[in-house]
Amino acid sequence: MKRYHFRISISYQEFEKLYRVPNTVVKVRSEQGAMLQLPAMRFVPFFTQLGVRGYFELQLNDDNKFQKLICLYN
Questions:
Q1: pLDDT for 37-63, tens place per residue?
Q2: How far is CA 8 from CA 1, 2, 35, 61, 62, in A?
Q3: Strand ranges (DSSP E) for the chain?
Q4: CA distance 27 to 10
């Protein structure tokens, strides 16, 4: 299993725009230096009045398929 860590801060208004457009991706750079693209829909469980903010862990299987996205802290 592969794990990537990154921080993200998207305002409520910015994320609301992303969420409304089908197939939108959020691009982030992990602490390991990898550029990651995640569907905006993966962040919906973490969407609050402040937007999407926090320190996340992305878990992928050995075939680079999505397994889990965890907010470690905001």
A1: 999 999 999 999 999 999 999 999 999
A2: 22, 19, 13, 22, 24
A3: 2-10, 25-29, 35-39, 52-60, 66-73
A4: 11
Global confidence as pTM: 0.93
The number of residues making up the chain comes to 74
Q: For residues 70 and 43, what is the distance between their CA atoms, to the nearest angstrom? A: 10
Identify whether the C-beta of residue 20 lies closer than 8 Å to the C-beta of residue 62.
no
Res. 36: pLDDT tops 90: yes
Three-state DSSP class for residue 31:
coil
